[in-house]
Structure formats: structure tokens, C-alpha cells
Amino acid sequence: MKFTGERFIPSEKGVIRYEHLHRYMAIIDYVKDKSVIDIACGEGYGSSIMSAFAKNVSGIDISPECIANAQSKYQRENLTFLQGYCNQIPVNSRSVDVVVSFETIEHHDQHEEMLAEIKRILKPEGILIMSSPNRVTYSDIPNNHNPFHVKELYYEELKILLDNNFKNVQFYGQKILINSAIIPLNSSLDALEKIRFYPQNNQFHDENSEFKMENPIYFLAICSDENLNNLNIVSSIYIDSQADIYQDLQKTYKEFSQVYADLQDIKNSNFGKMRELWMKFKSFLATS
């Protein structure tokens, strides 16, 4: 499949890869030995990741091309792909343990219908795990418009929507962070090890500092009518061992620095001085 900007495909690198893969990696514990539906599965990579741990996974997508690609590319006995809609899911009522829907709700405006359909297929004790862009930081502040998004939600809107459909909802924030890591060379970092956070605020303490997720780019919500306190909710960090984002930034910075140096050379040359004199003369003529 070719990347168009509407759906992520695993061949893409950079920030978008971190964001999409991390979401599926982060929920592995919640889908273990469960019956799972992946709404808007797209190319199928996420359904495939979950199928390595789940009892069974069905990826649902509106696109026949996506379904055909996924059926051909990802094959496991416990993995199927079906064409369907978020408000018309081809699954029996009360038959699913976990519904996963990442970056779906902003692509349409049938939000209530989608939630009603999810409730229909979930078992009474089932859970929904979904993500949604934070309209403030994704669109408003950067003045960004995604042509594939129909109706993005603010946090308050998303919270009301989910609270109206589930008794218990827990929210998480996701965004790319810049950090420096110190890890032993002769051993790996275990998930249960203690990690200290040192926010860059020029206030250093011997004790662990707290880190609070502020202004996330995406919200991730875990929803259920059952008590969520029994779920092993764990914050997580996605680490790219190849550090492709850092390498890209280094390359871009090097290229920018060279362009800046070239511009300075031009500015300091006779040509640059003549141009500066000409611009001053034009400004003088315009104001006289």
C-alpha cells in the first residue's frame, strides 16, 4: 500500500511511526488471551501485533483495499480481517472482550452511533481502548488542518462522550518527548526497575522528581462498565534503538547550519553589501 496521509503504514518513519506503534505496544497486557476487535485497522499492522498475544483478533476497516492487503500480508490462525463500518461492525452482540480503536473517531461525525455499536458487541465486562487527537495541541495551536479529519474533539467533549457510555474511564496523554537516558551497559533495563525523572526546570533534588503529562498531542482512554482498578495500568515509553528521528534532526540541523553560513557569506560579500545599500535606497525613495 502507498502512504497517502490518511492511514499509517509501517514503511513510514519518524514521529508518525513512534506514535502509532507505541499505542499498540502499550496495550499488549490488556489483550492477552482476549477476543479483540480492531476498528479501523487500516493496513493491518496493529491487528497483527495484537494477534501474537490475544486469543483472536478481527481487524475491521471500511476500505476494501486495506482489507485485501491485510489478508494477504498478515496471516495467523487467530487473525481475520473484515470489511465494515465503525457504526456497523460485522460481529455478534456481547461477543468481544476488548475493542481497540486508534485514531478513528476524528475521521467521521457519527460518534454516538459508533459508541452504541461498540457497546453492542462488547461483553458486559469488556473494555474499550481508544485514542483521539487533542484538538488544542494537534490543530488549534499549530494552526494545522488535517484534510482527512472530519470532527476532532476537545478533551471535555471526548470525556463527556465516553462518560455517557461507560461507567469508568481512565485517560492517558501521548506525545513525543526529548530526553537523555543513562542505562547500564552490561544489562538490560527491566520494566519493573525504578526510573527517576528530572524535568528541565533548573530545580534538582536527590529524591525522584515527578513528571506530569501536560498538553498531550493525543488522548488515550480505557473505558469499561467494570471497575478499572483491577487492570494493571502501566505508563510506558517507546524506544527506537535506531534513533531515526534523532538522526534526521541532526541531518536537518547540519544542512540548516550550512545554508545559514552560506547566506552569511553572501551578506558579507560585495554583492550582499550592494544589495543592502539598494534596499536602503528603495526604502528611502518609498518614504520620501
UniProtKB/TrEMBL annotation:
Domain of life: Bacteria
InterPro entries tied to this protein: Methyltransf_11, SAM-dependent_MTases_sf
Protein name in UniProt: Methyltransferase domain-containing protein
Gene Ontology MF terms in the entry: S-adenosylmethionine-dependent methyltransferase activity
The keyword Cell inner membrane is annotated on this UniProt entry: no
Pfam families in the record: Methyltransf_11
Cell inner membrane found in the keyword field: no
A biological process term (GO) from this entry: methylation
Domain Methyltransferase type: 38-130
Keywords linked to the UniProt accession: Methyltransferase, Transferase
